[in-house]
Design a protein that fits this description.
Radius of gyration: 17 Å
Oligomer: single chain
Bound molecules: S-adenosylmethionine, calcium ion
Helix content: 40-55%
CATH architecture: 3-Layer(aba) Sandwich
Structural class: alpha/beta
Distance between the termini: 30 Å
Largest sheet: 7 strands, mixed
Strand content: 15-25%
Number of helices: 8
CATH class: Alpha Beta
């Protein structure tokens, strides 16, 4: 049996980007601008963006949800992949980060597909549920504060239709989930959700070892 997660050094990662990455010049510029920000490491990797675009195409998503948008890279990938009929609801609390996102969404010509809800995402998701939006989404991406991941997951599971897909980011947390000496609240929250998902019969489950680990949970 081979190990399913290959150690990837810089040389191999450069090769991967050189041979698989299809990124528009605009997305490249957004990465460059974000890389000069102190919290740049929060951005998903470009190969992950391309993978998420593929997922959205595969399931023919028309309505998607994003929890944690930062400077807009993952939203740009997902909203572009959905085409002009697509609608993406983005949740974030930061006016500053999302001002960058809005600028790029505008320039990409996809701003009209994106409904940015500024405020705590739990409240935004509860408002969507209260408005009768349960089961109306095809895809959800969870990538905001880790201590609320379980709350985001439970709400996303109600908001996506049966057969809809939830993608949860950073589920390996740089390896900390497997290190029993790590007991900070973010690590514990991710570890607990990982353990819960394993037994959660409401979803089909898979781990994609891309970026910092991406869980795919498909609602049954
Ligand atoms: N998906 C983004 C990308 O591709 O660049 C990265 C998202 S970043 C890891 C997490 C984001 O979650 C930040 O922009 C932060 O402002 C936002 N956030 C943190 N706590 C939040 C909350 N309670 N509600 C909504 N957004 C929150
Ligand atoms: Ca992330």
């Amino acid at each position: 049996m081979s190990k399913s997660i290959l150690p990837i050094d810089d040389r191999l990662y450069d090769y991967i980007l050189a041979n698989w990455l299809r990124e528009t010049p605009l997305m490249r510029r957004l990465r460059d601008e974000t890389s000069r920000m102190p919290m740049s490491m929060m951005q998903i990797s470009p190969d992950q963006g391309q993978f998420m675009a593929m997922l959205v195409e595969l399931i023919g998503a028309r309505r998607a949800l994003e929890i944690g948008s930062f400077t807009g890279y993952s939203a740009l990938a997902v909203a572009s992949a959905m085409g002009p009929q697509g609608r993406l609801v983005c949740c974030d609390i930061s006016e500053e980060y999302t001002a960058v996102a809005r600028r790029y969404w505008q320039e990409a010509g996809i701003a009209d597909r994106i409904d940015l809800k500024l405020g705590p995402a739990l409240a935004t998701l509860d408002a969507l549920l209260a408005r009768g939006e349960a089961g109306k989404f095809d895809f959800a991406f969870i990538d905001a504060d880790k201590t609320n991941y379980d709350g985001y997951y439970e709400r996303a599971l109600r908001l996506v239709r049966p057969g809809g897909l939830i993608a949860i980011d950073n589920v390996l947390w740089d390896g900390a989930v497997a290190d029993t000496t790590k007991t900070d609240e973010d690590t514990v929250a991710i570890r607990q959700l990982n353990a819960k998902l394993l037994k959660d019969e409401r979803v089909a489950l898979s781990l994609v070892p891309i970026g910092d680990g991406l869980t795919l949970a498909r609602r049954r």
